Amino acid sequence: MPSTTAVSALCLYCAGVGYASFAIVQWVDSRRSKGSYPQYSEFSVVLVLGPLFVIAHRICQVMMTSVARAVIIRKSSWTAKAYEHKLTRFGSAIFKFVFFSVFSAYFFFTVLLDADWMPPILFGGGSTKNCWGEGRAGDTQHEVGTYLSHFYMLALAYHLSEVVFQIIYERDKPDLAEMLCHHVTTLFLVFTSFLANFVRIGTLVLFVHYVSDIPIYGAKIFVDTSCKMIAFLFLLGCILSWGFLRLYVFPAVIIRSTLMESIGERESMGEACFMSFNGALCVLVCLHMYWYSLFLKMGYFHLFKGETKDVQLETNLSEEMDPKTAEQTQCKMRCVPLA
To answer: H-type helices in 124-175, by residue range?
Structure first.
C-alpha cells in the first residue's frame, strides 16, 4: 500500500486534474455552436465498455491461473502471497499484451497509416502540423468521424477500467500510487482531447504509448518462467521502444507540436486551459523516465547477475521471501548498493 504522503499527493493531483477538466468542459460548451465538437452522449458507450473490460481482465486472470502454475515454478524463497501475486500478474500481462497488440495494429492500418497528420518518424506520410485547425481550435477542425470516435471510446473505457480494476483487485501493489497517477492523467488527456476535438494529436499520443506497451507485457508474461531468453528479448524491446517512442518521439515531436504548432488553439483556450494539456503530457514524460530507469535495472540484473525479475512490480522483501532469506538479502543490499 502507498504511504499516507503518497495518497495525499495523489488526492491533490486528482483535485487539480478535476478542476482542469471542468475548465475545459466550460470552454467547449461556450464554443459548441461555433464548431465541430463531440456530444456528451457519445461517452455513454464508455459506461458499458468499462465494466466489460474489468470483467474480461478478471476472467483472463482466473482462466490463466492453471497455465501460470504450470510455467511458474515456485521458489523456496517466495511466500504464498508473493507466489499468488505472480500468478495473477501472469494473467493480467496476457490480457494487456493482447489488447495493446490488437488495438495498435488495427488502429495503425485502419486510421493512421494514410492519415495526413501521421509524421514520417512514425512511418506515416503527413505532418503533425495537420493535427491542428486554422487558428480557432475545434472551430476549424474536421469532424471527429466514426472510426476515431470508436477508437477513442475504446481507449477511454480501457483506462477507466484500469483505475477500477486496481482499486478493487490490486490495492496492495507497491506501484499503486504511480499507476493511479498515470491512469488519472491518461483519462484526463483522452477525455478532454476528444471533447475539445484535439483528436488528431491525441491519436499520436495513444499510438506511441500502446505500441511501446506491447513488449512490456510480453516481458511480464515470461519474467517468472524458465524462458529467460524470451523475457530478456522482450525487455530489450522495452528499452529500445521506450527510448525511441516515449523518451524521444513523445517529447521531441508530439509535445513540441502541442507547444509550437498550435498557437491559435493556445490563444483561443487561454494559458490555464491550454497548459493543463501540456502539463499532463509532461507528467507522463516524468513517469516514463522513472519506469525506464527500472527497465535498465532489470537489464543490469539479467546481464551481470543472471537474474530476470520485474523490479517495477516486485513486492517488498517481507512478502517476497521468508524472514531468514529477506534478512540475508537486506544485509547484502546494505553492503553492496544496487543503485
So the answer is: 146-169
Q: 78-102 burial, b if ≥16 CB within 10 A, otherwise e?
A: bbeebbebbbbbbbbbbbbbebbbe
Q: What gap in Å lies between CA 64 and CA 200, rounded to an integer? A: 37
Torsion sign across C-alpha atoms 158, 163, 207, 25? positive
Helix (H) or strand (E) holding 20: helix 4-31
Asked if 172 and 1 touch (Cβ cutoff 8 Å), the reply is yes
Question: d(Cα 206, Cα 214) in Å, to the nearest integer?
Answer: 13
DSSP 3-state percent helix, strand, coil across the chain (nearest 5): 80, 0, 20
pLDDT tens track for 99-137: 999 999 999 999 899 998 999 999 999 999 888 866 545
Pair 217, 312: CB distance under 8 Å: no
**CA distances in angstroms from 276 to 182, 268, 282, 295, listed in the order given:** 15, 14, 10, 29
Instruction: Select from 35, 15, 10, 19 the least CA-distant residue to 272.
Output: 19
Quote the distance between the C-alpha of residue 294 and its chain's center.
Answer: 15
b/e sequence 295-315, b meaning 16+ C-beta within 10 Å: bbebbebbeeeeebbbbbbeb
> 3-class SS at 115?
coil
CB 232 within 8 A of CB 308: yes
CB 61 within 8 A of CB 91: yes
Q: What is the pLDDT of residues 251-300, one digit of tens each?
A: 999 999 998 888 777 777 777 778 888 999 999 999 999 999 888 887 77
In this structure, the chain runs to a length of 339
